[in-house]
Amino acid sequence: MSWKEKIDSVLFGWRDIAFKFLSWVVTLNVILGFYLLIYRYGFLPTDDEIFLIFKQFDGVFAVFVFNYLIRLVFTSYRREYIKNTKWEGILITLLFIHGSINSIFEVKGLYLLADLINPSGSLRTYQHFLSIVLVLLINTEVAKWSTKLSKLSIKPATTFILSFVLLILLGALLLMMPAVNHTEKSLNFIDALFTSTSASCVTGLAVVDTGMFFNLKGQLIILFLAQVGGIGIITFATFFATFLTQGVGLKQQLMIQDMLSGEDLGSVRQLLTRVVLLTLSIEALGTIAIFFSWGEDLIFNSFAQKVFYSIFHGISAFCNAGFSLFPDSLNTSMLSDATVNFKVPGMHIDIRNMYGLHFVVAIIIVLGSVGFSTIGEIFSVNKIKRKIMKPWKAYRLSTSISLKVTGFLLLLGTVAVLVLEFDKMENLTFTEALITSFFQSVTTRTAGFNSMDFGSMHTSTLIIMMLLMFIGASPGSTGGGIKTTTIYIIAISVYSNITGQDRITKGRRTIPNEISLKAVSIFLFASMYNLIAIFLLSVTEESNPDISLLELMFEQTSAFSTAGLSMGITSSVSTLGKLVLILSMYLGRVGTLTLALALSTPSKSNKYLYPEEAVMVG
């Protein structure tokens, strides 16, 4: 036995103990690092306190370096370990070089880089560098934790819904920090929880004005919650885990398959990568399009502000989040001295007449609402080639249904708004009225933006809007609602039953009965919950004479469908009413059927068959 083998043999005997010890140490280190970041950027520390915070950064970094090196020593396959943790290794190497330069020359390595990039603000830039490195290291450890989900004896559906609870609570705590808003005072817990839920569940309902109340830090937190909530925290964690660790577990793949409507388990990893890349690509293109769609009369404070506003609205539109940095979304018409974000005195900010912007945002919303698998198939290079060579070659059945139902509902909504609200658009040209109607039809697909005042709409229009919101987007998308395919399956099931057909068929395909039963279950769950929630809201808001039943019905439907549209009563709702809406937004995002599956117990076998007996219905 060689000396190397003898050393490895001794290390192997201590490996489990060492790894268990390191696991606890790193967990505490991650908590400490997170606390330091929160205190530095979420509160208002003095210069002396900031100095002490970054002194403690050195200790946190030292633990990360120590953990990596010890694990490298104790592992039996060191080359594979380095290969599987290459991104973490790059960060550790950077910190090692940074510390070595400091030990030899008594100068911080990253400080030299900061001084080179920004000589006038080198200290602040250096602190930002350290913070970014710490965030990346913390995310690396969180990604590792996500791969351990398969070892937990809980259902994938339970893990999925708990991930959103965790995201919402984290977002609420972050939004309560005094340094994330212009008042520099903590937002009360209920309003913070409401805002976090609305962002995480990509709804868009707001109890405080996003652009006027929150500063850049707060707006970034909302944007982060919308982005992660739109695709799903499990999706993001698993995506990064595939790069930072040795892979993902079966349970994670099952959760992603269910959330993104994957066809089979074998295609989940490919679908995961495609989803993230498609999301980033469409959001990037959308941001560029929005950047060039702002009206010439809208003068931003700086180029950077114009870029940020474009990014914010691009991500918010694709994720169907509905958050806007303007007081009345895309229906804003005001003077600039009424807001803290535009400093040009007396400038008239008129977003409602930027029809090019409205059209661009509408297209981004549609792309976010049709489903990731549908987008992937439409824009697949191979599929495009096959379509050119064989135009008659159809899409998959789910893609075909999603596109057809989406097109029909968009047309229905556009015609309804154009006809029913024509009296409010008499001063517009036909093209402007058509774009306005189309935009409002699109935004009911759970997008949350508005270019008209919903509080002044006719009751007939609002009923159509509630119907469209209730149906919502397509499966595997960033939107909510019971989904387009659900209502379609119910419709053809009813038709098949009326016409006496034994099986439900579409496009030379037979749709299984369990799919039909699932669609009916989703519809009934959603309908019953909304009726109960409207009843509860009517009780909690009974003492408020300014809120009508129609407004409560609209608000509840919007919350459950994660549409984010409102008749202007959100901030006036009582605390108990807000709690009802918070639960509605949460259930609308995770899905009532998913929650039922998570809470259900394993059913007993019913393979036996009792004699049939008819029951009168109808």
TrEMBL record:
Localization per Swiss-Prot or TrEMBL: Cell membrane
GO cellular component terms given for this protein: plasma membrane
Lineage: superkingdom: Bacteria
Name by which UniProt lists this protein: Trk-type K+ transport system membrane component
InterPro entries reported for this sequence: Cat_transpt
Transmembrane segments: 21-38, 50-70, 90-114, 126-145, 157-177, 189-208, 220-244, 275-295, 307-326, 355-380, 401-420, 462-495, 515-539, 579-599
GO biological process: metal ion transport
